[in-house]
């Protein structure tokens, strides 16, 4: 997560959260909450090791654990069948859960097991195989896991015995990254969703991919370029991202699926859930990690469009990218990541509002169903499952860091208790097949250890983040924010340097996002101290809302619509 303090105004928006990692918080000074957090931290630690040790005992070195039968599944058979050296010829595993667990082991202070895992992977993992992998999934899970673990293995705290690590994980990551590159060889620069690790793109490969699939590669591939000095990885991912952004509608909305050879949209309906979610996340986090203003400009426009066309009170429906008209009124479990992203841009009020609705749904069912139909107030008939997803825990962690409100500790406790009550079995933690009956499914996804347990642990114990600046990938892998990875900003960061042009009369009519500050930070202007309440909110020029022209009116905080000046001389939402 957070943040270099040497880059001036554009990073101020993260100040409150970074200070939370350095200064003593209210909850740290309140002994009952200290005791509660310590107790919950140990509960989460036991959860992680119950899942991890059962995987190591019954499924390693295959991909994922079957906790009910104490068997295994090679889930990466869809992603890659990543084979290991020195194992039987018919072996099809990639030790996915082990790769996904590496940073969690470090965060929980188990450097010994981390070292054993790194050594084993260094000696056994290979990507030189005839296997068709999903680019997006392999990128966020395998490439991201290897890069993050390499950085942790080489940091100044000497997590590994000195001299025993010689960049083996980075070498594996670079080898995997090279095998990704043929997927980007398309007329548009948008990558195929699938690529064979040995032979590249197959002759009859489908050209269909998702917005997330080709727009959520920049963190891992950008980090790989910075670590290796080879610009090809970041260039390929950035070219794809820019092409994708050029395909947006006049409303600054994107669809869900597209054709990588023609650059045409296939599915025009879109939202903040499956198929699109990490696209928004990576625009914002790429700006934090690499400092490019292009990423912020794209995210700023996209975020305001989401608030305008998808938001309905605390909920977010789907809409047609061409018209902005609502298409599907549904909640999906993946949407629960959104409040966490809103924390990073300073929209705390909106984040809290949406987060509370997800908590309500969690408490109603005991877990969050994969899909809930808001217009019918009923579960989706075929998507009643809960596969141990981390998104609600992730947003709870971010909101607690931003506010230090102990209510979020209580939310975390509720999540932990539900997971132990409904999903814990003798052989690990099982997914829920049907939230109405709590019937279980024989699958423990690797992201349960990579994300769910990690964010819950960090909620109760953030000592890993103290005096360190990290951003987490969409799979929960920490990447450090380094000055050497950043573009240099001008010495004087004045309005003429901004991406968004403002004339002198309108300079103070700015939102938290355009000024890149947290909403709780008082902004000083020639007119005194002003509180910015929402990331999209731009206050009216005058406190009494009187006006002579539309230029003196701001943007409404709840709808993100431009306010206008009425004939009577008052700002409001007069134009429908």
Q: Could you give a quick summary of the protein structure above?
A:
By secondary structure, the protein is an alpha+beta fold. It is built from 18 helices and 24 strands.
Topology record:
Blueprint: H1 15-22, H2 26-29, H3 31-58, E1 64-66, E2 71-73, H4 96-107, H5 111-124, E3 132-134, H6 135-153, H7 168-180, E4 194-196, E5 208-210, H8 211-215, H9 218-228, H10 232-246, E6 257-259, E7 265-267, E8 269-270, H11 277-290, H12 293-309, E9 311-312, E10 315-316, E11 319-320, E12 330-332, H13 338-344, H14 348-365, E13 371-373, E14 378-379, H15 391-403, H16 407-423, E15 424-425, E16 428-429, E17 431-434, E18 439-441, H17 447-460, E19 470-472, E20 478-480, H18 512-515, E21 522-525, E22 528-531, E23 564-565, E24 571-572
Antiparallel strand pairs: 1-2, 3-4, 5-6, 6-7, 8-11, 9-10, 12-13, 13-14, 15-16, 17-18, 19-20, 21-22, 23-24
Helix pairs in contact: 1-15, 3-16, 3-17, 4-5, 4-6, 4-17, 6-7, 6-9, 7-9, 9-10, 11-12, 13-14, 13-15, 14-15, 15-16, 15-17
Description:
One of its GO terms (biological process) is endoplasmic reticulum mannose trimming. It contains 18 helices and 24 strands. A hairpin with a 4-residue loop joins strand 1 (64-66) and strand 2. With 576 residues, the chain is α+β, with helices and mostly antiparallel strands. The radius of gyration is 24 Å and the shape is globular. Mean pLDDT is 85; it is low at 1-13, 19-29, 77-92, 490-508 and 518-532. The strands form 11 sheets. The chain has a 3-stranded antiparallel β-sheet. A 3-stranded antiparallel β-sheet has the order 12-13-14, with no helix packed on it. The longest helix has 28 residues, at 31-58.
């Amino acid at each position: 997560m957070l943040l270099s303090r040497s880059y001036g105004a554009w990073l101020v928006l993260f100040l409150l959260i970074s200070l939370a990692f350095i200064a003593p918080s209210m909850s740290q000074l309140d002994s009952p909450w200290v005791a509660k957090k310590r107790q919950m931290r140990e509960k989460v630690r036991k959860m992680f090791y119950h899942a991890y040790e059962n995987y190591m005992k019954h499924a390693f070195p295959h991909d994922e654990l079957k906790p009910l039968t104490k068997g295994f599944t090679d889930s990466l058979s869809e992603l890659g069948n990543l084979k290991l050296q020195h194992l039987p010829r018919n072996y099809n595993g990639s030790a996915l859960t082990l790769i996904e667990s590496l940073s969690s082991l470090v965060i929980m202070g188990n450097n010994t097991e981390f070292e054993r895992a790194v050594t084993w992977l260094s000696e056994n993992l290979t990507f030189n195989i005839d296997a068709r992998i999903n680019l997006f999934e392999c990128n966020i899970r395998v490439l991201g896991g290897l890069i993050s673990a390499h950085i942790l293995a080489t940091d100044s705290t000497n997590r590994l015995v000195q001299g025993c690590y010689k960049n083996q994980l980075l070498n594996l990551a670079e080898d995997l990254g090279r095998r990704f590159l043929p997927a980007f060889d398309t007329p548009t620069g948008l990558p195929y969703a699938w690529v064979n690790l040995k032979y590249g793109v197959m002759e009859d490969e489908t050209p269909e991919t998702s917005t997330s699939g080709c727009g959520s590669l920049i963190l891992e591939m950008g980090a790989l370029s910075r670590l290796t000095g080879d610009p090809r990885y970041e260039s390929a991912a950035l070219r794809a991202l820019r092409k994708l952004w050029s395909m947006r509608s006049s409303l600054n909305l994107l669809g869900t699926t597209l054709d990588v050879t023609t650059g045409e949209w296939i599915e025009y309906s879109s939202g903040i859930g499956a198929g699109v979610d990490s696209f928004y996340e990576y625009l914002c986090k790429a700006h934090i990690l690499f400092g490019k203003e292009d990423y912020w400009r794209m995210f700023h426009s996209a975020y305001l469009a989401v608030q305008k066309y998808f938001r309905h009170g605390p909920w977010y429906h789907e809409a047609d990218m061409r018209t902005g008209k609502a298409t599907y009124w549904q909640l999906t479990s993946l949407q629960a990541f959104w409040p966490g992203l809103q924390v990073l841009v300073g929209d705390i009020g909106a984040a809290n509002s949406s987060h509370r609705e997800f908590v309500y749904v969690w408490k109603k069912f005991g877990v969050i169903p994969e899909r809930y139909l808001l217009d019918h107030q009923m579960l989706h008939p075929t998507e009643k499952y809960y596969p141990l997803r981390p998104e609600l825990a992730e947003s709870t962690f971010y909101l607690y860091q931003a506010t230090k409100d102990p209510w979020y500790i209580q939310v975390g406790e509720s999540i932990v208790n539900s997971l132990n009550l409904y999903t814990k079995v003798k052989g690990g933690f099982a997914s829920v097949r049907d939230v109405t009956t709590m019937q279980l499914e024989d699958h423990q996804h690797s992201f349960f250890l990579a994300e769910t347990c990690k964010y819950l642990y960090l909620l109760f114990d953030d000592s890993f983040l103290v005096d360190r600046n990290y951003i987490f990938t969409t799979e929960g892998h920490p990447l450090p924010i380094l000055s050497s990875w950043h573009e240099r900003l001008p010495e004087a960061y004045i309005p003429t340097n901004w991406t968004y042009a403002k004339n002198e009369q309108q300079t103070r009519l700015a939102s938290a996002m355009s000024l890149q500050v947290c909403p709780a930070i008082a902004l000083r202007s020639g007119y005194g101290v002003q509180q910015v309440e929402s990331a999209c909110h731009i206050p009216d020029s005058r406190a009494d809302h009187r006006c002579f022209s539309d230029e003196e009116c701001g943007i409404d905080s709840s709808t993100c619509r431009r306010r206008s000046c009425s004939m009577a001389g008052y700002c409001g939402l007069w134009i429908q």
